[in-house]
Every structure is written in C-alpha cells, then in structure tokens.
Amino acid sequence: MKLFQYDNFPQVTGSRVSLRQILETDIKDLIEISFYDAIRAETVQQAAEMQAKINQDYLDGNSIHWGIVDNETHKIVGTCGYYRGLDKGEGELGCVLLPQYYGKGYMTTGMTLAIDFGLHTLGLKRIWAATDQHNGPAIKLLERLNFVKTADLNEGEVEYELRK
C-alpha cells in the first residue's frame, strides 16, 4: 500500500524552522545523529547508506523522515519523522537534535510541525513516541506537546501518545 502520493517530498514550513528532505550534501553534518534501526552511523559512508534506506522506506510508504532546518541560517539542526504504524492510521514519531542546538526551542517547533502534518495531512488518529525513562529533556518535550504517558516498556523505556 502506497501511503504517500506526493510528486515531491513534502516540505513543511514554519516561521522559525522548516521540515525538508535530507539531501546528500547534508549527511556530513548529521553523522552524530544518523540512526537506522537504533544503530548509529560512525562514518559518512554509513550515514549515507542509512539515509538511502530511509529514503527507500519513504518510497515504500513506510516512513517519512525530515531534516529540521533553521529558516534564518538554513542549517540543519536535527531530524524528525514518522517511522512505524502509518498503515494503521498511527505513527511513531521520533526526533534527534544536534547537541549544539539543545535548549533553544528548535525541537519543540519542529515536532509541532510534524505533529500537525501527521494529524491533518496524513490523517493519523494516534501519534506515539518511546524514550528512555531517564531522558528528562525528551519527556519534558513530549509533555509540552500534550503527549500522555501510556506505558512502561522493556529495558527502561516509556511510551507516550497523542490522540486526535
């Protein structure tokens, strides 16, 4: 089932940040936050291979993964996207921010854009996120975005959700 019927990868523009497709020229700046199946890239080559898989997942309709771009500097500050459950009308929302941008509101703004896209464009009925129970900043972010804790998962993870 093809979930995405876009001729062009969807870009979401806000006043402070935009969500856009990650380009090959972005990869070298994202190595430290490049992940695929919870494995972190250690080289540009590994990050490029992971991004190719992420791009294929989008083409297959299984996920959508954006770069979060500062509209003023045009630099990528992090990534976010939906990774599972889209075929069931829900989506696991994940995000990663480059450390030099922590505490500056970029992720709150980027995630708000992603949530609006998920609810209004994709028509998701449920958005969920999982994080380590000791990851205070991620938990505060989710709660600030009106997510509610729904479960304690294996290995110290917690799940939060947002319902339409």
UniProtKB/TrEMBL annotation:
Entries under InterPro entries matching the protein: Acyl_CoA_acyltransferase, GNAT_dom, N-acetyltransferase
Keyword entries, A-Z: Transferase
Any single GO CC term annotated in Swiss-Prot or TrEMBL for this entry: cytoplasm
Pfam families: Acetyltransf_3 (PF13302)
Domain N-acetyltransferase: 17-164
GO molecular function: protein-N-terminal-alanine acetyltransferase activity
Full protein name: N-acetyltransferase
Organism: Chryseobacterium elymi
Taxonomic placement: Bacteria, Pseudomonadati, Bacteroidota, Flavobacteriia, Flavobacteriales
